[in-house]
Every structure is written in structure tokens, then in C-alpha cells.
Amino acid sequence: MSITIERPPVKTRTDTELSPKYTLTAEQLDAFGDEMDAIRQRVVADLGEEDANYIRKVVKYQRGFEVAGRVMFYIPPLWPAAVASLSVSKILDNMEIGHNVMHGQYDWMGDPALNSRMFDWDTMAPAENWKYGHNYMHHTYTNIVGKDRDVGYGILRMDEEQEWRPYYLGNPLYAFLLMTFFEWGVMLHDLEVEEVFAGRRHLWRGENAPIMRRIRKKVGKQVLKDYVVFPLLSGPFFLTTLAGNAVANLVRNVWTFNIIFCGHFPAGVATFTVEETENESRGGWYYRQLLGSANITGSKLLHVMSGNLSHQIEHHLFPDIPARRYPELSVEVQEICQRYGLQYNTGPLHKQLFSVAKKIFRLSLPTRAPKTPQSTVTETPLAA
Q1: What is the pLDDT of residues 318-370, one digit of tens each?
Q2: What is the residue extent of each domain of the chain?
Q3: Which residues of 192-219 are buried (b: 16+ CB within 10 A; e: fewer)?
Q4: What is the C-alpha separation between 376 and 323, in angstroms, rounded?
Q5: What letter does residue 192 receive in the DSSP assignment?
Q6: Which among 21, 99, 198, 293 has the fewest CB atoms less than 10 Å away?
Q7: SS3 content of the chain, % helix, strand, coil (to 5)
Q8: pTM here?
């Protein structure tokens, strides 16, 4: 199975070298890392036909919803149902299939259609660009302010460690626009547009040249499909089909934005500085993933429609394990967290959404960075 992130090698550190945010001793961090490694190794060894059947079933349903939606656009009274069906298809393609397949979660199957190197999804962001920015940069440097560009996406102030500027007074507006046009925001993310505006990077030359080439190709393909070909195929229903495709993309954008933001930015999620994570051990990497993520409680349908990113903690701990395993792993991870006295941030969707919205508004104004650790319990000895 291919590994899509860099895990630090085993390193030893004395307790005095650890940042105050690390409420475990160096020995406890090593033991914590060993337990996480053991979980991953056990699950990888157990992958098999049940996992393969699951993802193939999801693909089958995703395609069925898409076909049903496209067909119903030919029947004007069924336009709302067509939009709903196409929206479900796009969400499944984006969340439970695209995101997870491109993490390499199903590479072990040997199926070219589900291989992370060959798969591309129904969204504006080119797969190759996204895999570097997300699989490598985000999952390696999760919540390290200054390295993880997903902290604010180069647009928002989502952490008090980010220096406030008058620009951030527009935080709520920027968040709304990013939610509405989320697939476009993800598409532009790897261009580091904020660096372009600062004059430190060119939009289409230098290191952005291959990124922009892939964007032009992918955007052309997506625009042609959703806004030209399928509307033309519907003949006299061109405009209603065009509008339906646009609304389905909007629904997918809003849903994806909210699931992702609830997994990364609600209250209690910790961030780290570059200095705090220097010479990070394997256990330290797991620790950072745990405290830098949050889960969403809910029904099985919510978990499927979120690509199981409702279990963002487990996803950050085990990004290349099939996401369908996260619900069962969450029970084990919570038990381990209780033994180590570590925060396990979880709550219903409405609670996490309110927390994120509150943070977006609060951080639009000048704030002072907290100096206290963000974990809930300190120095807890291991249970026997």
C-alpha cells in the first residue's frame, strides 16, 4: 500500500525539549506512537474483499444518482429531484470516492479505476495539484502555522497565531465566498495566490507554470462538461439543465466546505509553531494530528456523505487507511485518549458549525494569542 505522507523517524527527546503544548512526557509520546502504529498495521493487514466491495458499491450508487439526475432534467416537473440526485452524486464523488481514493486508500486493490495515481474527480482542482498540496503538505505539516497552508487557505484568519491585519475584517465575507465557490478556491490553492499578490511568486511562470497548465486543462474539461455538453444534450431544456448543474455544484461546494471546516477549525483544535515541532518524533506527529482535528457525530448516512471525514481525527491519524474503517477505529482511539488524558474533540454538526462560525467572526478582529496548552488534561500517567 502506498504511503502518501511523511512520518517522522523515531527520535528521542528529553522532557525539557518539549513545548508546553505537549502534555505527555517524551516516553509517553513514544508509547502513544507505538499504539497508533499498531492500530494501523493491524488494519492494513486486514484489508480485503469487504473493503473492495464497499468502495465499488459506493461508485455504483454514485453513478446511479448521476444518471438519474441527468435523465430527470428532461422532465421539467422533476427538476428539483434531478438537482438533488445530481448533488448527491457530486458529493459522493468528491468525498467518499475522490478524496479517499486519491489518498491511496484503495491502491492495494490493483484496480486502475481506484488507483490514486490515475483517478481524477468531478471538480475544478486537478488531482495532481491537490495531492501535493493536501496529501503531502497538509497531512505532513498539519496545523503548523507557517507550513500548513490549509490554516486559513491563504485567505482567512483561522488562528490567533496569524498576525492580524485590517484585511481580516472581511473574514466572514471571505469565508462565505470560499464556501460558495469552494471547488474554485481549492483549484487556486496550490498557486499560492497570496504570494502572487505579494509579488513573491508569478501567477503562470516559474514554479506556478506546471500548476497553471494542469488547471487550464482541468477547468476547460469541467466547464465543457457541466455548462456546455450536458445542457446542449438536453436540447430545449438547455437553460434548466445549465442551472441544475450549477446548483448541484453549489450544493456540493457548501457541503464540502462545512464538513472540512468542522473537522479543522472548531473550538479546542490546537495549532503548533514551527519551533514547537522541530525534530518531531513519530509519537509527536500522531499527537499533533489528534489535537489538530475534530470529529462530527451523526448518522451513518452523514458519515458516508462526508466521506467519513466526520471522523477527521482518525483520518489525520491514518490518512491512507480506507475511510470506512474510521468509525470502528474511533472507539479504540477514544479509549487510548482517555488513558493518556488527551482531548478527543467531537460533537454534533450544528455545534461544530456554530463553533467555526464564531471563530471566523472573532478572528476578523484583533486578538491576543493564548499562551496556555490546548489539551484538556496535563501529565497523566499511563494506566497499567
Answers
A1: 999 999 999 999 999 999 999 999 999 999 999 999 999 999 999 999 986 55
A2: 15-55+123-362
A3: bbebbeeeebebeeeebeebbebbeebb
A4: 27
A5: T
A6: 198
A7: 60, 0, 35
A8: 0.89
